[in-house]
Amino acid sequence: MANQLSDLQANKNRICLIHYACTDISKMPIKIPCIAVAEYANRKLRVFAEMEGKNEEDVLREFYDFVAHNFNYIYVGWNFKGVTYGLPVIERRYKELFKKKPSEINLVFDLDDILEQVYGRQYVDHGTFGKLHNLLTLNDISTKNFIDGKTEAELCEKNDLRPVERSTESKVHGMVGILDLLFSGKLKTSKQSKVRKLIYKIENSTIYKLACIIAVIITILGAYWLLKLIT
After folding, report:
1. Which domain holds residue 42?
2. Number of H helices, E strands in the chain
3. Structural contact between residues 110 and 81, judged by C-beta atoms closer than 8 angstroms
């Protein structure tokens, strides 16, 4: 979509933040023992995890039951794109286990992509712990229980899932906080991104769009009168 931020702002009541943890993506099959979601409008958090006697099948079944009951939701994740890290990973594992397609998710947005669209690619450093962690820290949003993706995968391999569950919760809560600041225009980013943010605001302003329309009209009229003079 040309302006994903505008689409999200216009549909705040439909936003659902999502993060999942899985085993090493270089090893098949990729197992998914934990998925966390948070409804943006009411801040209600749900964690589907292999805890208290539940297995991976229970996790995926409960998650897609949630999807089926909230079919109009817009899902927003972090690095939630492509077949390597995004929704297709969850869908593929569901098909492997249940031999059928899961409930369809129609709209998926990647928060990192949206921030790059608004602020430019250098909106925050990657650093040791990744862009999400650094952005949360820069904006004084709690990173308690936050674990990097590599460590999450290692813990999933060991079936040490309690810290993984807490980490998925932390990341979903963090993305809720980022959206709050993004929508209010108060999100802090690196110094390099300020010019890009200004350009984005200008390009998406009504005055700029009107000026572009006027420029097109003037160009067409100029070409018309030039053609008449020639002929």
Report:
1. 4-189
2. 10, 5
3. yes
206 with 183, same domain?
no
Give yes or no: residues 185 and 207 share one domain: no
Q: Which of 57, 29, 59 is nearest to 47 (CA)?
A: 59
Residue pair 180/140 in contact by the 8 Å Cβ criterion: no
pTM for this prediction: 0.78
- Confidence band for 151, pLDDT divided at 50, 70 and 90: very high
224 or 24: whose pLDDT is higher?
Answer: 24
Q: Rounded to whole angstroms, what are the CA distances from 145 to 152, 172, 184?
A: 11, 12, 26
CATH classification of the domain holding 54: 3.30.420.10
> CA-CA distance, 226 to 221, in Å (whole number)?
8
Domain shared by 39 and 23, yes or no: yes
> What integer pLDDT is reported at residue 208 of this predicted model?
60
Confidence class of residue 202 from pLDDT cuts 50, 70 and 90? low
User: What is the four-CA torsion angle of 126, 128, 134, 140, rounded to 10 degrees?
Assistant: -170
Q: Mind listing the pLDDT tens digit for each residue in 131-143?
A: 999 999 999 999 9
Let me know whether 118 and 231 are in one domain.
no
